Amino acid sequence: TAALGALLRCFPCERLCGGCAVPPGALPPAMPPPARRRLPPAARLPPRTFRSYLPRSHRTYSCVHCRAHLARHEELISKSFQGSHGRAYLFNSVVNVGCGPAEQRLLLTGLHSVADIFCQSCKTTLGWKYEQAFESSQKYKEGKFIIEMSHMVKENGWD
């Protein structure tokens, strides 16, 4: 404690007034208590957890922005889809996504009722869910999900 007192006596006093004769272990009378270091808001948040974790032994797709798991490779139906902003993949099922309200859109393959999907963790819009297809040749898409390639990354076992 004597060394700590010497530190408190020497360094703060020399910076403020050039040194003083405060006894070891006592703070100078004009010296404010040390300021507490405030953490940035992101550092105070609890660690991010996802609703579902896909097995590490499987090839998976994750959100490129926050790395939340999105889909297993086994759920992939087609790689030849077009999203709003580029190429997209069609999946049977996905995890860790939220769904917005359904609306009718005229897409390249005709009129569909779709609902935008977003990452539950970072809230980025990823693509959409096909709610209803109005043409009989497009009925296979109902209940399926489009995720744009620009919003996902491949993880676990891709060589």
UniProtKB/TrEMBL annotation:
Transmembrane segments: none annotated. The keyword Electron transport does not apply. It comes from the Eukaryota. The keyword Transmembrane helix does not apply. GO terms for molecular function: metal ion binding. Keywords: Metal-binding, Zinc. PROSITE patterns: YIPPEE. Residues 59-156 form the Yippee domain. It holds the Pfam family Yippee-Mis18. Belongs to the yippee family. This is Protein yippee-like. It comes from Poecile atricapillus. The gene is Ypel4.
